[in-house]
């Protein structure tokens, strides 16, 4: 009887942990923060695992997490704490392709997606640019270099998306691009990309229900690009280095 009660108590605790234990540390999945080890497969496994469990938050703490392309999933929140950085691979073949081109972080047909915190998502634009030029010269890829330059984040056909508090740095094509996204909230963002020519900040296409608040963009290319079909609900304190509004 005592063993049966102990078993029931254990099962109850495990059930409760499953219901409320939606916080996960990236290190639990083997992610290393040394800036040298490539964490692509570990990060992707963590995102997939959390999604299969019904959703939750994946926390990255202090360190530099080198990664190639990763796919976001519905109901999963990426949390980059202060001092944590997702560092993009300098190898072109590590990126993922969607209908908008190549990207580090992608998502299609998702809902309830969040990226938040006080950390950094950082491209290695100079190294990646050299890698692309080398591949073009050797004939491994063909076309204009602009066709292969990736963004840091590309979301397509998604809804209920929030990006809050992240520093986006050194993208080749653009920091973020959103296509056919509904209910998009961008808040407390710092976007910089002045080192490479024509690096853009945010690209919006065919999207509805957009809110922008407390955003600073300093890029060599267009800081904010929106097509005529996209609709903004609110723009508040979204500025350029000059202090002027991004719109």
UniProtKB/TrEMBL annotation:
Signal as UniProt keyword: yes
Keyword Hydrolase recorded: yes
Source organism superkingdom: Bacteria
Pfam family, one: Glyco_hydro_28
Alphabetized GO MF terms: polygalacturonase activity
UniProt cross-references to Gene3D superfamilies, sorted A to Z: Single-stranded right-handed beta-helix, Pectin lyase-like (2.160.20.10)
Record's keyword terms, sorted: Glycosidase, Hydrolase, Signal
Annotated signal peptide: 1-21
GO biological process, one term: carbohydrate metabolic process
Cited PANTHER family: PECTIN LYASE-RELATED (PTHR31339), PLASMIN AND FIBRONECTIN-BINDING PROTEIN A (PTHR31339:SF9)
Family note: Belongs to the glycosyl hydrolase 28 family.
Protein name listed in UniProt: Uncharacterized protein
Organism: Rhinopithecimicrobium faecis
Organism phylogeny: Bacteria, Pseudomonadati, Bacteroidota, Sphingobacteriia, Sphingobacteriales
């Amino acid at each position: 009887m005592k063993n049966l009660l102990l078993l029931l108590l254990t099962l109850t605790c495990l059930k409760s942990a499953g219901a409320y234990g939606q916080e996960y540390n990236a290190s639990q999945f083997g992610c290393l923060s040394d800036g040298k080890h490539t964490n692509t497969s570990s990060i992707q496994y963590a995102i997939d695992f959390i999604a299969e469990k019904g959703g939750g938050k994946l926390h990255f703490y202090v360190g530099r997490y080198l990664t190639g392309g990763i796919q976001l999933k519905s109901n999963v929140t990426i949390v980059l704490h202060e001092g944590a950085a997702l560092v993009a691979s300098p190898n072109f073949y590590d990126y993922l392709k969607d209908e908008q081109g190549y990207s580090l972080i992608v998502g299609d047909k998702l809902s309830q997606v969040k990226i938040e915190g006080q950390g950094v998502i950082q491209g290695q634009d100079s190294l990646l640019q050299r890698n692309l030029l080398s591949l073009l010269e050797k004939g491994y890829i063909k076309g204009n270099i602009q066709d292969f330059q990736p963004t840091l984040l590309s979301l397509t056909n998604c809804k209920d998306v929030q990006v809050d508090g992240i520093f986006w740095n050194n993208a080749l094509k653009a920091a973020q691009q959103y296509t056919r996204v509904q209910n998009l909230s961008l808040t407390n963002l710092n976007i910089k990309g002045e080192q490479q020519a024509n690096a853009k900040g945010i690209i919006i296409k065919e999207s509805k229900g957009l809110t922008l608040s407390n955003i600073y963009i300093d890029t060599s290319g267009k800081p904010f690009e929106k097509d005529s079909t996209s609709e903004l609900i609110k723009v508040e304190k979204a500025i350029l280095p000059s202090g002027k509004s991004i719109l």
